[in-house]
Write a structure and sequence with these properties.
The complex is a heterotrimer of chains A (263), B (789) and C (157). With 263 residues, chain A is of the alpha+beta class. Chain A has twelve helices and 14 strands. In chain A, a hairpin with a 2-residue loop joins β8 and β9. The model of chain A has no long low-confidence stretch (mean pLDDT 97). Chain B is an alpha+beta fold. Chain B folds into three domains: 170 residues, 2-Layer Sandwich (Aldehyde Oxidoreductase, domain 4); 195 residues, Alpha-Beta Complex (Aldehyde Oxidoreductase, domain 3); 325 residues, Aldehyde Oxidoreductase, domain 4 (2-Layer Sandwich), CATH 3.30.365.10. In chain B, the strands form seven sheets. Chain B has a seven-stranded mixed sheet, sandwiched between helices. Chain B is globular. Chain B starts with 17 loop residues before the first helix and ends with a helix. The N terminus of chain B is likely disordered. With 157 residues, chain C is an alpha+beta fold. Chain C has two domains: 75 residues, Beta-grasp domain (Ubiquitin-like (UB roll)), CATH 3.10.20; 67 residues, [2Fe-2S]-binding domain (DNA polymerase, domain 1). Chain C has five helices and five strands. In chain C, α3 crosses α5. The model of chain C has no long low-confidence stretch (mean pLDDT 97). Classes of the chains: A alpha+beta (263), B alpha+beta (789), C alpha+beta (157). Chains A and C meet through β1, α2 and α6 of A and β4 and α3 of C.
Chain lengths: 263, 789, 157
């Protein structure tokens, strides 16, 4: 790793201010950031440790939404009675992120701010039409994910929580890359207050909504309807593990599995 | 006699070495922290092929904490890394053996090639300084595919290897084979790629080199499988140091699988540098570094044909293979696709005529050498995939076609040099079929079809040549070393025993199994026997552990030493008991005068040897410490049948291993638990090759695309099932243990078993042929292609 | 600039001034001499470095030592009793031959204990799934699964 300074922030305001003045990076669980720094792929001059900020923790039901603090670990979301009761698909998704050790450290806020094209949480946030709450504003899911590793966050902006509206039905089906176990294709399907939403991760440069699947499932929320949709391969990722055509094939297959699991 | 006396032989004694591993008290090379040590970092080539115009180390040498920076130009008087096996080509000429410099000289030839050594106070400082080394490269076109490398116009990698050819070698009777094919009723053919693998032992390579000014000696800790070989090669061939002045210690080693056999540039450069820096130097590879610089395995392209008569009897086999050597010849590279490959093409069958031609080529990739199985997985894959194909082509059942061709009369001289001593291939096939419930397969297949999945079953009846090796045969075939083994049994005055073995344990449990052999023979508790390995300063000599040789060769050396111990003990006992030596029997730890109850215990004899007050000093020396060197008279031939059942989801291409059965004949077994563990591990590596693992270099740039676990799929616990393993025993006829060895069998048989099952399952989808790995993507693509045609 | 860190390791309080870059695994191995925790990769996937931080299995190669500030860390060296008697999970690994070269073993055992605490009466499939973060190249996992089951029973889980 390259050298860096480390400050432990005690409040959100302190953290945001430090980010702004130092141009550094926030340290949440570190499961992506520390890894990148070890390989000398990331070189922040300052790390601002968020783990000591109490208002970033906690899971609560607020009306018809579940609000999860940005520093909540994946393992906590996976085992939370609140989440399991209100949005079991979200708990199940968290249970499938990484492996048990990664889940004990990795956080919701860290995952979203990083926006790895194969991460799982972006699919849940986009699929449920969640709201990303920062120290400055509330950002709708549709406006949050901008591109590969790119989000709408400003340099001194910190995610404090995410508000997930409780859907009528939802599920996430992930086809894992055999090596990395990240999503090669991950599909989050939800019947929300404003219709069917289908969010796909792992297949393109960033998570996206699959409109054709949303329309088909809006007409008929069945696995057969999902499977019948043809997704074009254009714009989908090509790498060692999957061609764009394979990903295009898997999207409706996984969407169908999610629909079947949603009940 | 002796070594197979009951008691502890055949018992699954729990391992003596486990306590330290389980409590964090193991000492691996990275756990060695000499006083005042420094850290090494290797600058490696970012290019697959380039001339080095100039290297400027000025800034690096001035960087904080740096003790020294060395490049190839500094290593005057240092020779290249040697290859230990000379292959003679079909033209009668020796193979092309271009230099393999310790640090690059004028050119780099693969991504990861060693360019400079930085020694600094901390690892970060060494890495920081390496970033300041200015290398002016003239990038050249690269070639990574072993077949492409031989084509006219391919980039020329070594001046000494025109056309990038290392050798073309052949074995067998071509005329007889051609004649048999000409009149055959059926010919089955396959084009096969044996996918390149990266061994990936979980412990990365590491070394600690210390120079001792007091007596001009060196001490090297290194994660290695054969410290005496390492020392000999390094001192005699590369650094021109007195052999006896260098001590090589391979302490606890976290897995090897072949990748830690070789003499590598890193530890060689560090030993050289340790005198110049006059500080201990420590290096631990990062995993991404291991990916580019450990020797890789496999990487063959093969065209193979099997000729049969109309009753399914094999008449002849012909095989043409191109094998990738990588950019430089690693220590044993040349013999892997020749001596350890072509000689196994008879398999378990009576095929009377076989001809194999192998061309080995250089490419701009990491050197390729032995990886668990070393040539035998490649051979088994060719044979068993051909047999599977022949069964499909002729309609003969998979088990039946094998039975029609099994060797049943031993010893059996194959047409490819080797003579099998003994075996019972029907027994392992029959037992495997029972264990796999082959009879119920049709029902399972139909049930899977109701769920929309494709179920298939595949066989691999494999054989391997192990217990490397009879030195005279190896020498005649080009080996530059002997392949004997050494064992010293040192009885202490109080009757406890230390065994010094030239074998090395990096997971195989020798500290337990070798103690069992000694305990059984001498009638002492296993706890009283300690096994020491891995240290040239303590062990007389050894060729190390690989090729499933430790029990057959290392164990037999110990048996021979035990023979000498018992013989001497009898002399001492005869003297104490005032009897004739011929009347002394030794059994269950007691020396007894035959036909009487007059006896002395082993402990009494031991003490007497060291307190020789009543002792035939005129005829016998005091002490009880014997060494034996054992050179085997033949290879050993473990064999068996693996049966794999897979279930494939055509929607995603995912192949699930539903069931895997292995019935193996390893000869006599000392510790069944340890043997099963070796099989489990080998099977998982074999399944990894078949379904998950693939080392990929970009064909244009030569960059390693699978450079981490993010892209190289390692088998995890949820990738494999629990296994069903069993054994049949036909004891090896030519060593006193009757042991054949078991370490590689799983990796040898499993790939063919899995892929035969995959082909069986995919036949219904019209897929005729698929190379490894059968990853979900590749399976799905194969199904789509079959739909189109 | 050095940063001060205080934590408890295997029950003993530890305070040190360290380079902030120091990973927890480096702190344990090099500063404290606890070399039982191993480094097997550089992408946080092999799990050989697994320790417990406040009772949870964490990969010590992917957190900075400072992230363990005020935490209670347990390493493989902290499992056995003072008289050397092995923890039931350690004993189960020996009994079931769940290790060969031993390099992945400390991480595997720490992960297994955490797994069993969180999944009482875990089935074979659950154990295999939950060991996704621990690579072994030697054993083929067959005996590791048996060891985890036996260790769980011995722990009363």
């Amino acid at each position: 790793m390259y050298p860096f300074e480390l400050t432990r922030a005690k409040t959100v305001a302190e953290a945001a201010s430090a980010l702004g003045t130092t141009g550094g990076k926030a340290l949440a669980g570190g499961q992506s950031l520390i890894g990148a720094m070890k390989l000398r792929l990331a070189q922040p001059g300052t790390l601002i440790d968020l783990s000591g900020i109490p208002e970033l923790k906690g899971i609560k039901k607020e009306g018809d939404a579940v609000v999860i603090g940005a520093m909540t670990r994946h393992a906590e979301v996976a085992s939370s009675a609140v989440v399991k009761g209100a949005i079991p698909a979200l708990a199940a998704l968290a249970q499938g992120i990484g492996d048990r050790q990664v889940r004990n450290m990795g956080t919701l806020g860290g995952s979203l701010a990083n926006n790895d094209p194969a991460a799982c949480y972006p699919a849940a946030v986009l699929g449920l039409g969640a709201t990303v709450i920062t120290n400055k504003r509330r950002i709708a899911a549709d406006d949050f994910f901008k591109g590969m590793y790119e989000t709408a966050l400003a340099a001194d902006e910190i995610i404090t929580a995410v508000s997930f509206p409780v859907p009528r039905k939802a599920a996430y089906a992930k086809f894992a890359n055999p090596a990395s176990r990240f999503a090669l294709v991950g599909v989050f399907v939800a019947q929300t207050g404003s219709g069917v939403r289908v969010a796909v991760t792992g297949a393109a440069s960033s998570v996206f909504r699959a409109k054709a699947l949303e329309e088909a499932l809006g007409r008929s929320f069945t696995a057969e309807a999902a499977k019948a949709v043809k997704v074009p391969a254009t714009g989908l990722n090509a790498d060692l593990h999957a061609s764009p055509e394979y990903r295009a094939h898997l999207i409706p297959v996984m969407a169908a599995r999610a629909v079947a699991a949603a009940g | 006699m002796g070594a197979t006396e009951q008691g502890v032989i055949g018992q699954s004694i729990r391992r003596k070495e486990d306590y330290r591993f389980l409590t964090g008290a193991g000492q691996y090379t990275a756990d060695v922290y000499p006083q005042h040590h420094s850290h090494a970092y290797f600058l490696r080539s970012p290019h697959a092929h380039a001339k080095i115009r100039h290297i400027d180390t000025t800034k690096a040498k001035a960087a904080p904490g740096v003790l020294a920076v060395f490049t190839g130009a500094d290593l005057t008087g240092v020779n290249g890394l040697p290859c230990g096996w000379l292959i003679t080509g079909t033209d009668g000429k020796p193979m092309n053996e271009p230099p393999h410099p310790v640090l690059a000289q004028g050119k780099v030839r693969y991504v990861g090639d060693h360019v400079a050594l930085v020694v600094a106070e901390t690892p970060n400082q060494a890495k920081d300084a390496a970033e300041l080394i200015d290398v002016d490269y003239e990038v050249l076109p690269a070639v990574v595919n072993c077949v492409e490398a031989l084509k006219p116009g391919a980039p020329q990698i070594h001046d000494g290897a025109p056309g990038n050819k290392c050798y073309t070698w052949a074995l067998g009777d071509k005329a007889a084979v051609d004649a048999a094919f000409a009149s055959a009723a059926q010919v089955s053919k396959l084009d096969i790629v044996n996918n390149r693998l990266i061994p990936n032992a979980i412990e990365p390579r590491a070394a600690v080199a210390t120079y001792n000014r007091a007596d001009d000696s060196y001490e090297l800790y290194v994660a290695n499988q054969n410290p005496h070989v390492e020392r000999l090669l390094m001192t005699a061939f590369v650094l021109s140091l007195p052999e006896h002045k260098v001590r090589v210690i391979a302490p606890d080693v976290g897995g090897g699988f072949g990748s830690k056999i070789y003499l590598y540039a890193e530890e060689t450069a560090m030993v050289w540098a340790s005198k110049r820096v006059n500080r201990p130097i420590k290096w631990v590879a990062e995993r991404s570094e291991s990916f580019v610089s450990d020797a890789h395995g496999r990487d063959h392209v093969t065209h193979a044909e099997l000729a049969l008569d109309k009753s399914g009897k094999f008449l002849a086999m012909r095989v043409h293979t191109t094998a990738n050597m990588g950019a430089y010849l690693s220590t044993f590279a040349s013999c892997i696709p020749t001596i350890l490959y072509a000689t196994l093409l008879a398999g378990q069958y009576t095929t009377p005529a076989i001809y194999a031609e192998v061309t080995a080529s250089f490419t701009n990739t990491a050197p390729v050498d032995a990886y668990r199985g070393a040539g035998r997985p490649e051979a088994t894959y060719v044979v068993e995939r051909l047999v599977h194909q022949a069964a499909v082509d002729t309609g003969i059942a998979q088990d039946e076609i094998r039975r029609r061709n099994f060797i049943r009369s031993f010893p059996y001289q194959t047409p490819v040099a080797l003579t099998y001593d003994t075996g019972n291939y029907d027994a392992t096939l029959d037992e495997a079929m029972k264990m796999a419930d082959v009879a119920g397969f049709a029902t399972r297949k139909a049930e899977a079809a109701t769920r929309g999945t494709l179920r298939g079953i595949g066989y691999a009846s494999y054989i391997e040549a192990c217990g490397l090796a009879p030195s005279n045969i190896a020498g005649a075939l080009g080996a530059r070393a002997g392949l004997f083994e050494a064992g010293e049994v040192r009885v202490h005055p109080t009757g406890s025993i230390t065994v010094f073995t030239g074998s090395h344990s990096h997971g195989q449990g020798h500290e337990t199994t070798f103690a069992q052999i000694v305990a059984a023979r001498l009638g002492v508790p296993v706890e009283n026997v300690d096994v020491v390995h891995g240290d040239t300063g303590r062990v007389p000599f050894g060729m190390g552990t690989y090729g499933s040789r430790s029990l057959a060769v290392g164990g037999t050396a110990i048996v021979k030493a035990l023979d000498k111990i018992v013989a001497k003990g009898k002399k001492i006992a005869a003297h104490l008991l005032e009897a004739a030596e011929a009347d002394i029997e030794f059994k269950d730890g007691k020396f007894t005068v035959a036909g009487t109850d007059r006896s002395k215990t082993f402990g009494e004899i031991a003490l007497t040897a060291y307190v020789p007050h009543n002792y035939p000093l005129d005829k016998l020396e005091p002490g009880l410490d014997e060494t034996a060197f054992y050179d085997p008279t033949n290879f050993t031939y473990p064999a068996g049948t693996h049966i794999c059942e897979v279930e494939i989801d055509p929607d995603t291409g995912v192949v699930q291993v539903a069931n895997f059965v292995a019935c193996d004949d390893f000869g006599n077994i000392i510790n069944p638990m340890i043997v099963e563990g070796q099989v489990h591990g080998g099977l998982t590596q074999g399944i990894g090759q078949a379904l998950l693992e693939r080392c990929v270099y970009d064909p244009e740039s030569g960059q390693l695309l699978t450079g981490s676990y993010m892209d190289y799929a390692m088998p995890r616990a949820d990738d494999v099932p629990s296994f069903k393993v069993g054994t049949k025993v036909t004891p090896c006829t030519h060593n006193p243990l009757g042991a054949k060895g078991c370490g590689e069998a799983g990796a040898i048989g499993a790939p063919a078993a899995v892929m035969n099952a995959v082909h069986d399952a995919l036949a219904a989808a019209g897929v005729k042929y698929l190379d490894m790995p059968a990853s979900p993507h590749r399976v799905w693509q194969a199904i789509q292609s079959a739909k189109k045609s | 600039m050095a940063i001060s860190v205080s934590l408890t390791v295997n029950g003993k309080p530890v305070t040190a001034d360290i380079d902030p870059r120091t990973l927890l695994v480096e702190f344990l191995r090099t500063h404290l001499g606890l070399t039982g925790t191993h480094v097997g990769c550089d992408t946080g996937q092999c799990g050989a470095c697994t320790v417990h931080v406040d009772g949870q299995a964490i990969k010590s190669c992917t957190i900075l030592a400072v992230q363990a500030q005020d935490a209670a860390v347990t390493t493989i060296e902290g499992l056995a009793a003072a008289d050397g008697t092995m923890h039931p999970m350690q004993a189960a690994f020996k009994e079931c031959h769940g290790l060969q070269c031993g390099f992945c073993t400390p991480g595997m055992v720490m992960s297994a204990i955490d797994l069993v605490e969180r999944h009482p009466k875990a089935s074979e499939q659950t154990i295999r799934d939950e060991l996704e973060g621990n690579l072994c190249r030697c054993t083929g996992y067959h005996n590791i699964v048996k060891a985890v089951q036996q260790g769980a029973a011995a722990m009363g889980k």
